[in-house]
TrEMBL record:
GO terms for biological process: NAD+ biosynthetic process. PANTHER family: NICOTINATE-NUCLEOTIDE ADENYLYLTRANSFERASE-RELATED (PTHR39321), PHOSPHOPANTETHEINE ADENYLYLTRANSFERASE (PTHR39321:SF3). Residues 3-164 form the Cytidyltransferase-like domain. The gene is nadD. Keywords: ATP-binding, NAD, Nucleotide-binding, Nucleotidyltransferase, Pyridine nucleotide biosynthesis, Transferase. It catalyses: nicotinate beta-D-ribonucleotide + ATP + H(+) = deamido-NAD(+) + diphosphate. Catalyzes the reversible adenylation of nicotinate mononucleotide (NaMN) to nicotinic acid adenine dinucleotide (NaAD). This is nicotinate-nucleotide adenylyltransferase. Its EC number is 2.7.7.18. Pathway: Cofactor biosynthesis; NAD(+) biosynthesis; deamido-NAD(+) from nicotinate D-ribonucleotide: step 1/1.
């Protein structure tokens, strides 16, 4: 919701990946279970949860985003990632191509935001960073362009969400966004 409001987006597509090439997939719940968990959390008419990567057979974010830009001509797409992903973004397959393909919004999830901002990708793209008070212009910006959004912080990464699901319901803590 923070990104949707601050960026002036019409919709958010929450892409649930079949697996992260940079992480071990052992013990990863089935995709359908993760899609259901994401849908239960999303509960907003303008947030669409999708498993499109499994449907189209892509493994890397760049391939998925390239597919979406080809399939959705005229749609202004923005890639939204958590700040924890920015910290390791330079290890992603074709990360520079992702930055050149479409604008990026980085959402601070809590913790020390200086670490992701000091990461190699953030430093490499520093001159393309928009001021946060200009975040509404990101969707219309020409890539490479990115913004770092501070605001309501949720520590819920996909890993944290899966861990939360494994706890008994009586122990689960409510989440506010």
């Amino acid at each position: 919701m923070l990104a949707m409001k601050r960026l002036g987006l019409d919709f958010v597509w929450w892409l649930v990946t079949p697996g992260n090439p940079l992480k071990a997939t052992a013990g990863l719940p089935p995709l359908e279970a993760r899609l259901a968990a994401a849908r239960a959390l999303a509960r907003h008419p303008r947030i669409k949860v999708s498993g499109i990567e499994a449907e189209i057979g892509t493994r890397y974010t760049f391939d998925t985003l390239a597919y979406l830009t080809r399939r959705c001509p005229g749609v202004r797409l923005v890639w939204i990632m958590g700040a924890d992903n920015l910290a390791g973004f330079h290890r992603w397959q074709h990360w520079r191509d992702i930055a050149d393909l479409l604008p990026i919004a980085v959402v601070d999830r809590g913790g020390a935001h200086w670490r992701p901002l000091a990461a190699p990708a953030a430093r490499a793209l520093a001159r393309n960073r928009l001021a946060e008070d200009n975040a509404h212009a990101l969707a219309g910006a020409t890539a490479p362009a990115w913004v770092f959004l501070h605001g309501l912080k949720s520590p819920l990464s996909s890993t944290a969400l899966r861990q939360r699901q494994r706890r008994p319901a009586t122990l689960a803590q409510p989440t506010t966004y």
